[in-house]
Amino acid sequence: MKNKISVTILTKNSQEYILECLNALVDFDEIILLDNGSTDRTMDFAKEFKNVKIFEHKFIGFGPMKKLAVSFTSNDWVLSIDSDEILSKQLTKEILDLNLKVTCVYSILRDNYYNKKLIKACGWDNDYQLRLFNKTMTNFNDKQVHEGLIINKSMQTIKLNNAFKHYTFNEVGQLLKKMDTYAALYAIENKNKKRATPFMAFIKATFAFFKNYFLQKGFLYGYEGLLISVSNANGVFYKYMKLYEENNK
């Protein structure tokens, strides 16, 4: 007997990959799709799938949004994925055939792509994500950005054998947009909680580039490696600069 698992997905103008994403999830019992004001064909595509239940809510931060999506699920077991993540048939079978244990949280390897090119550098490799869990035991935290599951000492983390695809970005504009969004959310979340100065922003950004491009071998991936390394460094710089401005308002 296959496990009864609800899948949760957040969407906003996700038409590019949502069909591929949902097609890979047809064997799951229930899909909760929580949308944040899509104006493209995301909802039209989602309505084609019988196992999809659609909800809408204004954006309240990634952690709170994912918790809200979990609250709509019918099953205790929840698989949280993003609308640009695609499960393989092998991973789907592995998940549905698991001998699930309530005290365990399951970690899945995420293969990250830039413009359909697999990147195993810049911190994008060995990217295990805690995604499968029992909602009676844990849930997402309330972080605005870089949210995660709340794990206590009584819980065990188990790595699965198969990976899923993650189509991160196709072009520079998407990188810039996400960088600005995440920097703003970081500043709002940490206002008057963390210290930030322009010099700190510069030092942390410089180290981030050195780490991504040299230590994490971004230089092996041509222009993509350079672009990702510079973008990551800029993201660090601007999140601390935005925090500095927020703290001094």
Q: What does this protein look like?
A:
The chain is built from 7 helices and 9 strands; from the N terminus they run E-H-E-H-E-H-E-E-H-E-E-E-E-H-H-H. It is an alpha/beta fold. It folds into 2 domains: 5-169, Spore Coat Polysaccharide Biosynthesis Protein SpsA, Chain A; 172-247, no CATH class. Strands 1, 2, 3, 4, 5, 6, 7, 8 and 9 form a 9-stranded mixed beta sheet that branches. The chain starts with a strand and ends with a helix. The mean pLDDT is 97.
Specify the structural class: alpha/beta
The rough form would be described as globular
Top CATH class of the largest domain: Alpha Beta
> Strand share of the residues?
15-25%
**How many structural domains does the protein architecture include?**
2
CATH-defined topology of the largest domain: Spore Coat Polysaccharide Biosynthesis Protein SpsA, Chain A
Low-confidence stretches: none
Summarize the structure.
This protein has 249 residues and is α/β, with parallel strands linked by helices.
Question: What keywords describe this structure?
Answer:
single chain; 249 residues; alpha/beta; Spore Coat Polysaccharide Biosynthesis Protein SpsA, Chain A; 2 domains; nine-stranded mixed β-sheet; 7 helices; 9 strands; 25% strand; globular
